[in-house]
Amino acid sequence: MSGTTLEQFSYDNKIVKYFGAATVIWGLAGMLIGVIAATQLFLPEANLGNPYTTFGRIRPLHTNAVIFAFVGNAIFAGVYYSMPRLLKAPMWNKTLSWFHFWGWQAIILSAVITLPLGLTSSKEYAELEWPIDIAIAVVWVAFGANMIGTLIKRREKHMYVAIWFYLASFVTVAVLHIFNSLALPVSLFKSYSAYAGVQDALVQWWYGHNAVAFFLTTPFLGLMYYYLPKAANRPVYSYKLSIIHFWSLIFIYIWAGPHHLLYTALPEWAQVLGVAFSVMLIAPSWGGMVNGLLTLRGAWDKVRVDPVLKFMVVAVTAYGMATFEGPLLSLKNVNAIAHYTDWIVAHVHIGGLGWNGFLTFSMLYWLWPKMWRTNLYSVKLANTHFWLGTLGILFYALPMYVAALTQSLMWKEFGDAGRLAYPNFLETVIQIVPMYMLRAFGGLLYLSGAILMVYNLIKTAAAGTFQEEEADEAPALAKHVSTSGEFWHRAWERKPVFFTILATVAILIGGVVEIIPTMLVKSNVPTISSVEPYTPLELQGRDLYISNGCVGCHSQMIRPFRSETERYGEYSKAGEYIYDRPFLWGSKRTGPDLHRVGGKYPDSWHYHHMVDPRTMSPGSLMPPYPWMTTRTMDHSTIGAKIRTMMKLGVPYPEGYDETAIDDLHAQAQSIVAGLKESGVEVLPDSEIVALIAYLQRLGTDISKTASTNP
Fold first, then answer.
1. Type and span of the H or E element at 659
2. Which residue, among 368, 351, 229, 366, has the nearest Cα to 307 in the 3D structure?
3. How far is CA 327 from CA 253, 256, 257, 490, 510, in A?
4. pLDDT for 128-142, tens place per residue?
5. Maximum Cα–Cα distance for the chain, whole Å?
6. Neighbouring residues of 358: CB distance < 8 A, sequence distance ≥ 6
7. Can you say how many angstroms the Cα of residue 306 is from the centroid of all Cα atoms in its chain?
8. What pLDDT score does 481 carry?
9. For a pLDDT cut of 90, what percent of the chain falls above it?
10. Predicted local confidence at residue 285, as pLDDT
């Protein structure tokens, strides 16, 4: 431009390379752990006979590795490459960039260490304990500060659509993480949730659903809006559609969390809100899918030969499928069939493997040759990866849909005499074992494709020369530019701070409307007079149950269906959970519901069942826990636990923290004496004694009410 002074600057590719390499390394680790976990579900021996590698411990390790390590690092690699180029400015602060990188890897490493040790808060997608939660908040804020600093120093007057999604993701994840993680510490790696029961469930799934929305979806939509047009060499199909897509998506998504809790003890009004907004969600979601696919108009001939575009097309299609299925699953009649079955597992993995995985692969295949200034080593290998990944998704998801329908139909079937046709839960498990085998095979195919990609990227890098700093130039942004007569959204795009505030308001409305009444209006959580706080030994047993990840396979929520009340007992009431920190309603039944298991079996049955589940339940896929009979629990922390619970409002007697240990020993001795009568010798402070105490308490409060109110 004549008379315009161009400023010289450069983009930092080194931080992109590091985040990209971390994506690959953690991705392979997360997928391998996933294949092991899938194998454990049909081969109990794959639990390897120790407490650190059981399904209950490695399942949260798998989800954290895939979501926060694989997908998280992919987001950061994509943002650190695209954002500077869209804004014509390097990232604001290199030190913050590297603090972000090393801080995030340290957080992931802490998850790798703590989760197998059983140090967990038990909250879905938020299992890490409070010191790590604080570290996540600090590192995430550093990432956001770097983004906003770059926006303020930009040379491009308008913010491109990808940046809208990056900003909304940063703000919303910060809000979700901080509020869901509020807890009162007991010790360095033990805390109790600030919320209890129904309130904890609502906050958790407000977080859980929107972690999927604003960590697995909106940042990837931002990546789609940058990398898909770049790879296709075509402009985004519709700017106005992207505006509708963005604002309606971030406003509606935040309301939909309660659809994970249909037919539970959650207040009906909250369930209805969740369903209504979930159904509405399909419109903006498909708006984004359409905008992505129509961007390829005129470029479909390239899709046949370009593996990058192949991966992108399937990714966007998988996004469309997952965002159709989500609203479908939120319908109460569909949810009644699907919830607690493998349908949910299939749904999650269509999104995870198809949308997140394939878009990440396409981005890496596009970035590596660019940064190393060479061509992709092997298009043939990339195409082989594509077909292995696609077949992997099919072999994973389709058997899970078959398993889900089999489970649900068997759970609900009644015979001619009006009794359950399959009263033993294990009958349904045995039927779907072949489906679990196929699922593991699908995961192995998908992992094999990812290994091919790693080889391809290494060879690509070896053939080129890495460009650590990429030079560019652009005129400085004018200080004062009139926005009069400009399209309203264009005017907003000039004001990043104002834009961020608007996005924050949009995402806060739904959370405020749903959560505050549940906290403040007592009628939402009616109390039951017979429900008492857990005894010290029961509290220890509950913590042990949480530590071993039992909630990953067992629910504690009996829904008001005849099939469930016939199988498990009286349906669950909100007032039964007022001392549950965290709540343990679960999201998948690989084993039976346990909310009414208290008193159903003698103590000796639980003992033998934990030592070797197949002696009590032939054909069971549950791993054995023989070490619980010899490992002792540290009961010296019980006073601190009682004090923490009292601070959270649990009505233990004044000074009970000093005498709780006596009650604990008395109850333990009683259980030990009963076991001895059954021919079982065990020490009072062994883990199995505490676990038995907790299991025998479950669901007994309602029976007390019945006995006192005939």
1. helix 656-677
2. 366
3. 11, 9, 11, 32, 17
4. 999 999 999 999 999
5. 97
6. 311, 312, 314, 315, 318, 389
7. 32
8. 62
9. 92
10. 94
d(CA 305, CA 231): 12
Give backbone dihedrals phi and psi of 78, rounded to 5 degrees, phi first. Answer: -65, -40
> What's the pTM?
0.95
Asked if 525 contacts 575 with a C-beta cutoff of 8 angstroms, the reply is yes
How much is the CA Rg of the chain, to the nearest whole Å? 27
Task: Give the closest residue to 227 by CA, choosing from 21, 355, 79, 22.
Answer: 79
pLDDT value at 709 more than 50: no
Q: What angle do CA 304, 309, 315 make, to 5 degrees?
A: 120
Q: What are phi and psi of 480, to 5 degrees?
A: -130, 110
Contact 613, 622 (CB under 8 A): yes
Instruction: Please check the confidence at residue 710 and state whether its pLDDT lies above 70.
Output: no
DSSP string of 116-159, one letter each residue: TTT-----TT--S-HHHHHHHHHHHHHHHHHHHHHHHT-S-SSP
Residue pair 592/23 in contact (Cβ under 8 Å)? The answer is no
As a whole number of angstroms, the distance between CA 687 and CA 678 comes to 18
pLDDT in tens, 1-30: 455 789 999 999 999 999 999 999 999 999
Where does the pLDDT of residue 508 fall: very low under 50, low under 70, confident under 90, or very high at 90 and above? very high
Residue 180 pLDDT more than 50? Answer: yes
